[in-house]
Amino acid sequence: MQIRSDEFKERSVFAIHDANLQTALGRARYGFVGKRAQQVADLPEFEQLREEAKNLKNHVLDNLDHYLARYEQAVVASGGQVHWARDAEEARKIILGICKRVGAKTVTKGKSMVSEEIDLNEALIDNGMEVVETDLGEYIIQLAHEPPSHIIAPAVHKTKDQVSDLFEAAHGGPRKTQVPELVDEARRVLRDKYFRADVGITGGNFLVAETGSSIIVTNEGNGDLTQTLAKVHIVTSGIERVVPTLDDATLFLRLLARSATGQETETYTTISTGPRRADDLDGPEEYHVVLVDNGRSKMLAGRFRDMLRCIRCGACMNHCPVYGAVGGHAYGWVYPGPMGSVLTPLIKGLDAAYDLPNACTLNGRCQSVCPVKIPLPELLRELRHLQHQQNITPVMQKRALGIWRWVATRPKLYHALEQLAARALSGIARRGRIRRLPLAGGWTDSRDLPAPTGRTFLELWQGKRGQR
Amino acid sequence: MNAPANASGNARDAILKSVRDALRRDPLDATQVAALDARVPRHTRPAHDEDLVTRFMRKFESRAGTIERVASRDAVPAAVEAYRLAHRLPQRAAVGAALKDLAWPDGWLIHHEAAGITEALAVSRALCGIAETGSLMLASGPHSPTTHNFVPDDHVVVLETARIVDHFEDGWTELRARPEGMPRATNIISGPSRTADVEQTIQLGAHGPRRVHVILVG
Amino acid sequence: MTSSPTAGPRVGLFATCLMNLFRPNVGFSAVKLLEDAGCSVEVPASQTCCGQPGYNSGDYDAARALARQVIEAFEHFDYVVGPSGSCMATIRHDYPALFADDPQWLPRAEALSRKSFELLSFLADVRGAAVTVDARYAGTATYHDSCSGLRGLGIKGQPRALLGEVDGLKLKEMEDAEVCCGFGGTFCVKYPEISEKMVDDKVRNILATGADTLLGGDLGCLMNIAGRLKRIHAPVKVFHIAEVLAGFADGAGLADAPKESR
Ligand code: SF4
């Protein structure tokens, strides 16, 4: 999708005033957060698992070339094919090539963030294929012609009413208003698509080097119908998703559902290994994996390697007060919230997403829930540092920082200015507060400024100590 | 290794090279590779002191699954018939060939093929149950087609109590022990299909079965 | 008490920018609490700011310049203590990171880091045995956990334990006490609409408790929340926790009219 992260400010302001969005966000926030907290409380080993998961991911990343090669061998041994894509364009070409070769007319899709990242749907549609998203949330936003606003719950920004409208427009009346009716309607409509599909595309939560398997985790079962009923199954996955063994995958499975949706496990964990066997009665005839780099190998090099530990659970955005205020669309690209604020500038360019690393209070709640302990605030600050070094930071801000530094490294001057400010501000204060202050609209438009009392602490302290 | 990465056929080498460049090292040597291949993962497994059958049942039921216990395998058809009557289903089912030998009641239409779009009921045999989360593990194959697990509204799964293992890792051991190797699909199923995509309201029967019923044998 | 004030540790008080300018009473409260806990307190005049504004804006050079100044001003003390989780987390965690590649300054930064404490954690964790709270406060308070103190320094139980010893004070926890108030330093002026939404959520949770007083350990957050509370004319007093613990919360709260006037 077209990146719109440079509109973050404008879109976040609108988001705050979008009543439907605010209703939807309020509901989601407490659901996810409360359920996760319960799961964590129920599992005394949770913290230990986080530490182990962090270490395991680091181990994999240190040896990524090895595990990717082993994984490839195992896929081939089970009759599947592995394709490598350096960037989004290459990935699209590979997938399009497979679809064209088998004469695909209908392509069903399970939820895959990588396919969003590589703009896959547009490419398939432009080539005359019918593309059907089968995850209910993805289906809803496909009908709405919108990108996902959350990596786990793509339609989390939609109210039931809005879903009713979308379904009525797409499927005809009578308009359904109850959740069970809506879910049933989607079930009925999509049934037919699964059985007609030529190609089924899913993501891969984990790729297992030991067995050459891809693992997906879902609640709906749509990913399974997608990959079982189509003639060809294509898995799209980032290169960082490989894990050494099934036992290693288990460590992440224990963390993923708890962190993502606050469940002990999702309903379906599916391990797919190669195409249909000779004596199988169902399953795809071809099994392909497209391994996408798209900037990931570069991230391995430096400070941002930590980000490659991400297992896409969404906990960071569920706990982010900024995401909770503005929702996912304001972030302007595929990945929203804290993880997106790190990934988007790294994949799409520092200047394409200036605001993302900056629109954060560095409150650290994301890091405290991240199942693989990614130091998200530190990475965001590091991106600010790069912006500063590369002169992407606005000139006015840089200048202000320069002045601040110059003054703050001169204690006498600094204290004199603070004394002046204390007097000036207390002079214009009314009843202990200042309601409006020139050049400080960012503060006083929505808040009073508590007024100083006239003397600074250091001033008073020196006076007091002098009297002793 | 240093071939110019122009043709797309070189993507693999280019990516692996880019990975090594980022890691600032050459390909691993034979000793290092051997060490990685010999690595044995040891991760913490959630501890519990429950009996495996009790835990399996408690966890499975907590996720809206239903369970009936029968004494022996012979009792399975009668239990399926009772389930059918209770849910007013037709006398028709896709039954995994693993359960072919059971004596199905008269009047039943049984087939062992993949499930079709109108399939209402499937009966499968689980490879094992996982007590940790109360999950069923089913391995695809000629005796247990994957479509049985997802297409029908009602899925009845036969599980022997002796086949309930403790953790996921014990389930992997079962998989590795299969002479035919990894199945195409290994489905770990924890209750009926569900979604919370409309206003966070949990709704069962999103795309997969609306009901999953376990017949626990033994 | 085993040690007399003179025999106790020498503490350098880190007078945070906001405290120095807006709320001297917090500084005097901190001094009282530290002296009551058996410390001798000094306030170096060569200090200004911990450097966090530069650090969080990505200007690491500016942050280092300020950090060196703080290290020089405070390294001869037994402890550095400040009434802010945010500034003290910067000194404790960020200084060593800032000088990671500087063999000359790294040891000094690490040494300072080890003896730097936020006021409440210092009182409870370091001087625990010597601390007795002797204060009265008639009212029901709710406590906002500031993010840096909470997640950076693990401050959660200490303020509550100390407040438990204040005569007459009733503590009522708010929903989402651990969620950011939307201050975030320059964040609140760079993204005022988002900040306003966040502080509104915070204010709603505060008001839902029915408490008449909001307490916290960081003036940045408290000024933000007080500013919003006053803008909507909410009758909630706002104090830094040190003011209450020291028994100095008898004057006007943040952004309230001075008691003498009118
Ligand atoms: S950064 Fe951490 S919390 Fe956020 S999606 Fe990734 S793994 Fe989950």
TrEMBL record, chain A:
Residues 301-331 form the 4Fe-4S ferredoxin-type domain. Pfam families: Fer4_8, LUD_dom, LutB_C. The keyword Transferase does not apply. Keywords: 4Fe-4S, Electron transport, Iron, Iron-sulfur, Metal-binding, Repeat, Transport. It comes from the Bacteria. PANTHER family: LACTATE UTILIZATION PROTEIN B. This is Iron-sulfur cluster-binding protein. It comes from Aromatoleum buckelii. The lineage of its organism: Bacteria, Pseudomonadati, Pseudomonadota, Betaproteobacteria, Rhodocyclales.
UniProtKB/TrEMBL annotation, chain B:
This is Lactate utilization protein C. Gene3D superfamilies: NagB/RpiA/CoA transferase-like. It comes from Aromatoleum buckelii. Pfam families: LUD_dom (PF02589). Residues 123-217 form the LUD domain.
From TrEMBL, chain C:
InterPro entries: Cys_rich_dom (IPR004017). Residues 11-92, 142-225 form the Cysteine-rich domain. PANTHER family: LACTATE UTILIZATION PROTEIN A (PTHR30296:SF0), UNCHARACTERIZED PROTEIN YKGE (PTHR30296). This is (Fe-S)-binding protein.
